[in-house]
Amino acid sequence: MTKRKSGGHPDLKMVNPNAAAIDIGSTMHMAAVNPDTDIMPVRAFGTFTQDLHDLADWFRSCGVTSVAMESTGVYWIPAFEILEANGFEVILVNARYAKNVPGRKTDVSDAGWLRQLHSYALLRGSFHPEAEIATLRAYMRQRERLTEYAAAHIQHMQKALMEMNLQLHHVVSDITGATGMLIIRAIVGGERDPEVLAAFRDVRCKSSMGTIKAALVGNDRPEHVFAC
C-alpha cells in the first residue's frame, strides 16, 4: 500500500496581483509593490505629508489597487487617510496575523512579506468605520476625555477647599454650579470676607446666607488657593 504524503501544501492562487503593502514606522514607511511592476519594488518613504503623496503617486504608477499596512500606535492614520483619498482600497492589519503565517523567507523584508500575503488574500483587515462614523467617534472620544479631566479637576478643587476648611460642598449641592463657581472665583480673586462671599448665593440655593457664611470661615493658604 502506497503511503500518502503529508505536509504538502497546494499552490496558492494569487487573488490580487496589484496588491501593495506598507510597514508603518514613526519616521519612515517601508513600502512594497509587485516586483514585476518596478525594478525597485521595496522603497522607503518619509512620514511628512508630501512623502505620503509621493507614496500614493508611486503606487498609482505601479498599478496598485489595494494596500495593506501594518502598524502600532497611531502612525498609520495619515497614510491611511491620504491613500484612501487617492482611491486605493486600504486595510490595516494586525501584526500578529502576519507573523503567524508560516513560510516566510529570511531575506524577504517585512513590507515584501506583507505584500505577498495580501496578494494571496491571506490578511484580514481590522475594523475601520466609515468616514462619518470615524469623525463622530473622534468627537465622542474627545468629549469623554474632557469629561474625565473635568471630574478630576473638580476633585482637586474640592480637596483644596477642604484643606482650607472652606466647606462649600456641604452648603451647595454642586460646587461647579452658579453659587459655587461665583464664590470660588471670588476666593481665587483674593476675596476672604465670608459675608461678601455668601452674598454670591443664588436665589435658588437652598442654604441660607448665614449657613454659607459660616461654612466659608476658613484657614486659607496661598498654595491651596492656587490649587483651586
Automatic annotation (TrEMBL):
Residues covered by the Transposase IS110-like N-terminal domain: 21-164
InterPro entries documented for this protein: Transp_IS110-like_N, Transpos_IS110
Name recorded for this polypeptide: Transposase
Species this chain originates from: Paracoccus aurantius
